[in-house]
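We modelled the chain as a single entity of 607 amino acids. Its sequence is:
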Amino acid sequence: MEYFKQILRFAKPYKRFAILNIIANIFYALFGTLSMISLFPMLKVLFAKTDELHTKPLWEGIGKITSYGEQYLNYFVTQKKAEGNDDVLIFMVVLVVSTFLLKNLFSYLAMYFITFLRNGVLKDMRNELYKKITSLPLAFYSEKRKGDTMSRISTDVLEIQHSFLSILELIVREPLMIVFTIISMFLISAKLTLFVFIFIPISGFLISLIGKTLKRKSDRVQKEQGLFLSIVDETLGGLKVIKGFNGEKIFGRKFQESTSRFYKFSNSLLNRQNLAGPTSEFLGITVIAVLLWYGGRMVLNDGSLDPGLFLVYMGLAYNILTPAKAISKASYKVKKGNAAAERVLEILNTESPLKDKADAVEKDGFNTSIALEHVSFKYEDDYVLKDFSIKIEKGKTLALVGQSGSGKSTIANLVTRFYDVSKGKIIIDGQDIRDLTKHSLRELMGLVTQDSILFNDTVKNNILLGKEDATDEAVIEALKIANAWEFVKDLPLGIETNIGDSGNKLSGGQKQRLSIARAVLKNPPIMILDEATSALDTESERLVQVALENMMKNRTSIVIAHRLSTIQNADTIVVMQKGKIVEQGKHQELLEQNGVYRSLVQMQSIQ
């Protein structure tokens, strides 16, 4: 129930629908009980069992309501006969039909109102989950499978709707139906009702035994679903490699192993769940059979119970079975939903270590410099940056070079605050970036990465990510600066052309130039280029390099370079090895030092 309480907070904005649902359910339970009781007068009239009564009966309190109802029926029929009206049976039929009509009308209204609550909670929970997913740091996803996260926001949230939120439907309606029915049964025969209650705890105990393992079994099913969704995601992302290496069988085997486990776990879960309905129904029928035996004796042997009332009583007893069955099923659903709620709340309750401070300030411009002061950083156990210090003046270009794993990209991740430093600090205009809001910090920066990250949308909408309210003219101008307009203008719909999943309708160079155009449109004072040309052919590199030079004019730039030909004009080149600075200076100065930088240049044969 701890998870249920946390989920209920999503229902608060929709409490008016919950109140209307409760009101409708109260009337549903009332008319559901009355619809069964209304059969009694019809049976009495149908079998001519009414006695003549010419004086209106007196109300003697709730304890004698049964005899009052019977006497009033006798009086009503006697009066109608005295008036020469033979339509008493029609009146009784209309009474029965009316109560059943009202019962079903309020049942519909209860479901109508709860629909808005259920779907509203589903919407808000998914929205909050998505917001949380985008706010958590990159480090959170380094150990998580994408498919597992997708499973939580889709299947697990839906499972919560089917399990926990179904309780909201049952929490009033079914218990009230049982309460009203039991009150009516007590009024008809307290002795018979007490006899029935002996068997109810036994039934409840047997049903609870079935539900004990449902949470554990459900958890296995949901985890396995996350795993095979991850395999599908990896397959679609790496289809070219899988086909190129004839790896279809390997991935097919992994997927089949996962779906086989899912098949086994699902069968185990559903078979246990499916046992609930037949068990509760069988136990209910057993109680009905006992009633027939004991109540039949009361009718036939000592005449302490009217036959018509006994038939109504049996109807009421059967009337309890449906809500009791619904409640038992709901208890299984809650156990199953517990596993889904645990997985969803694991993300929702995760605190981001990169949260803005309570007194974090908005920074709306860049004025003097960026400084990394004695920065050390580790992703897990080993430091990838060790006591790293550098200062970048406004308008200058800093280039970071070195072998893979030397810590170059880590600096880009730290300056943009995708991660926080382990030791030391990063300062912009004299302020520690941890004292700034992440949003205002990243507003100052444009990012172009080695992998051109584009989305399945139009050219225009991909570029507008940098500045949502930009005009078409501004988009085209950014494309021109990025050397991208030359191919975009020839696309079937120009800037309105959809570029496919991850921009796969374009070449590598074209995708990279669109990434640059996106950064150009944003027009930030600080630009971070993380190996922006390393994956390109020579012709594309030349075009992209020109685009980068256009973009870097009058901006402070941090360039992480693999191809050293792209950074010869940088104001400062920092050569890194194993997280430390081994050389720094301008291109010509470093060549003259005849050290690590010169070796790197010679390896790339650019002299």
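As a brief sanity check on the tokenised model: The domain at 369-604 is CATH 3.40.50.300 (Rossmann fold). The CA atoms of residues 405 and 578 lie 7 Å apart.
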